[in-house]
Write a structure and sequence with these properties.
With about 400 residues, this protein is an alpha/beta fold. The chain has helices at about 15-25, 65, 85-95, 115-120, 145-150, 175-200, 210-215, 220-230, 260-270, 275-280, 285-290, 295-305, 310-320, 330-335, 335-340, 380-390, 395-400; strands at about 10, 30-35, 50-55, 60-65, 75, 100, 125-130, 205-210, 245-250, 255-260, 325, 345-350, 355-360. It has 17 helices and 13 strands. The two termini are about 30 Å apart. Pfam families: CoA_transf_3 (PF02515). It comes from Trinickia dabaoshanensis.
Length: about 400
């Protein structure tokens, strides 16, 4: 039994931030009912290729993007624009502990599915709204997109190569980091709200905004600005205050070298066959290396190019110099540590395929997260949920399907 096996979540979210939160709750044992549009479903179902393949190599209708954020859920299809569909949602909300939604501000109010409407049905409901800019403020009604928020929230001002260097300029993250972090913050907020409800019997509304999260997650970078009053700049793979602490190209790939003190610097250049660099007064201490980085770093870069990635990693690890490879995903999933931690899991899929997924990274001794089921096909559990949760009979379900409500 999962830690949240007593919790039911009605998931009205699509794409990534909301589904990521819902999947985390599902991994922890919650019964997550994912409500989707009949015939279309979550937008990410169609964000392919690649698509999951059947054993004979044919594409299924399940895009890899959708698979990453929807395991352990039950999918039902309901048209919430119809009175009958709205009734189903209200009935499901009445049996749920949590409702997640990421519609535009005010959009669900016209259907009677906003927090105040559902609170009247279930006073202790935890209702989490995920939007780009929040429920208040001049941009509240604007749609939010991760890429745009990364720019607006300052992330891209500190990410990317320095403007003065080749390839310099703002750069987004390689994944939708504002979406994912919003999903994680939303998970924390939902768990806190459930703890409050269990103690007091009081539900509440949660207002999660991608822009808020993007600003908050800059952490020490934001703090540096607030304390120092100077906007930080991009440093690429280098460190503003430590040298050498960056990525270097080897003869065949790339490595990261993270020299944290002068002793490690001496070991690094000794391994590289340039021990005289540690005795040069310009490079002997970190403050001097920072002052002379524009001279030192090109020298080190040429030194590192003389060996392969694996030769450098082996030699530096033996010398006690912090380092690591820059792996592509094929190398990641072939890594001995990643394999030992079981980060790849294979789950049977209703299509007959086997869905390769990434396991939840949370480790708990008593109630660990688990993969109970593959991401569901569109509407896979509509009949089951309507029967088991709401008590609908076959005739009622057939009538709803005849009206295209489900």
């Amino acid at each position: 039994m999962g830690a949240l096996s007593h919790i039911r979540v009605l998931d009205l979210t699509r794409v990534l931030a909301g589904p990521w939160c819902a999947q985390t709750l599902a991994d922890l044992g919650a019964d997550v009912i994912k409500l989707e549009r009949p015939g279309a479903g979550d937008d990410t179902r169609h964000w392919g290729p690649p698509y999951l393949k059947t054993p004979d190599g044919a594409d299924t209708r399940e895009a890899a993007y959708y698979l990453c954020a929807n395991r352990n859920k039950r999918s039902i299809t309901v048209d919430i624009a119809t009175p009958e569909g709205q009734k189903i949602v209200r009935e499901l909300a009445a049996t749920s502990d949590v409702v997640l939604e990421n519609y535009k501000v005010g959009q669900l109010q016209k259907y009677g599915l906003d927090y105040e409407s559902l609170k009247a049905i279930k006073p202790d409901l935890v209702y989490c709204s995920v939007t780009g800019f929040g429920q208040t403020g001049p941009l509240a009604e604007r749609a939010g997109y991760d890429f745009i928020v990364q720019g607006m929230g300052g992330f891209m001002s500190v990410t990317g190569e320095r403007d003065a260097l080749p390839g310099g300029g703002p750069q987004k993250a390689g994944v939708a980091i504002a979406d994912l972090m919003t999903g994680m913050y939303a998970t924390v907020a939902v768990l806190a709200a459930l703890a409050h409800r269990d103690r007091t019997g009081e539900g509440q509304a949660i207002d999660m905004a991608l822009l808020d999260v993007q600003v908050a997650m800059l952490a020490n970078v934001t703090s540096n600005y607030l304390v120092g009053g100077k906007a930080p700049q991009r440093w690429g793979n280098a460190h503003q205050n430590i040298v050498p602490y960056q990525a270097f190209q080897t003869s065949d790939s790339w490595i990261i070298v993270a020299v944290g003190n002068d002793g490690q610097f001496r070991k690094f250049v000794e391994v590289g066959g340039r021990p005289e660099l540690a005795d040069d007064e310009r490079y002997a201490t970190n403050p001097e290396r920072v002052r002379h980085r524009d001279v030192l770093v090109p020298i080190i870069a040429e030194m590192v190019k003389t060996r392969t990635k694996h030769e450098w990693i082996e030699a530096l690890e033996a010398a006690g110099v912090p380092c690591g490879p820059i792996n592509d995903l094929a190398e990641v999933f072939d890594d001995a540590q990643v394999r030992a931690r079981g980060m790849r899991v294979e789950v049977p899929h209703p299509s007959g395929a086997t869905a390769p997924l990434v396991r939840n990274p949370i480790r708990m001794s008593a109630t660990p997260p688990e993969v109970r089921s593959a991401p569901p096909t569109l509407g896979e559990h509509t009949d089951t949920v309507l029967k088991e949760v709401l008590g609908y009979d076959d005739a009622a379900i057939a009538a709803l399907r005849g009206k295209s409500v489900i």
